[in-house]
Amino acid sequence: MRGYGPVLQTILRQVKSQKGCHWVLLDPDDFSMEHGAGIASTAEKAGVDALLIGGSLLHTNHFDSFVGAVKQAVSIPIILFPGDATQLSGNADAVLFLSLVSGRNPVNLIGEQVKGAPVIKKLGIEPVSTAYMLVESGAVTSVEFMSGTRPIPRAKPMIAAAHALAAQYMGMSLVYLEAGSGAPNTVPPEMIRMVREYVDIPIICGGGIRDAATAKEKIDAGADIIVTGNLLKADSGVSAMVEIATAVKNG
Ligand code: 1GP
Description:
With 251 residues, the protein is an alpha/beta fold. It has nine helices and eight strands.
């Protein structure tokens, strides 16, 4: 697989061999290093396939050491999920090299990428080219507000499919259908199905997924990887995460 780094190769292998994959997003603003490392370790034991670290607007001053603490605690891939070019750390294995293709804001399409690319090279972490697509969720999400872009209408699956296909034709490795963190409504299955019809690259789906049934609905519609983040803030969060990891893997 020429040009594919080890993390992308692992992702592609898991996508091929499992019914579905589950990634957990840790926002360093929400957890201490110890708490984050503890959740990461529980996630790995539950069968979570990779950890994302990042947020739309980070105000923590422990980002780099947080990534390091999580990395020490687990052996599954640690993948950065940066809101902008400042959220980079050499303690990670890879970074989702995101372009917000559903929007028309050049800063999120190419500007932050130009700032981040030389830093990523210097840090020696693997960039995984990812088409990031924001989907209308019934509320204005942080990423919508911060990027100043409009999400794809929920009832327009063909618009999503066309964006995803264009991204695949541009050589992107993954497509991420994002309802937004804490979204009241998740990405509609009809939209996932339509995107699945049009692209071969793995589909990631996240935003508002809080239980195993919803996670399974996304996988059954054609998503390869589901992401959960916010649910960890609830008291029952860790047990919900474990349930989702089991459901997603075994179908
Ligand atoms: C957000 O898709 C992720 O970028 C996860 O969303 O926090 O709502 O689980 P939640």
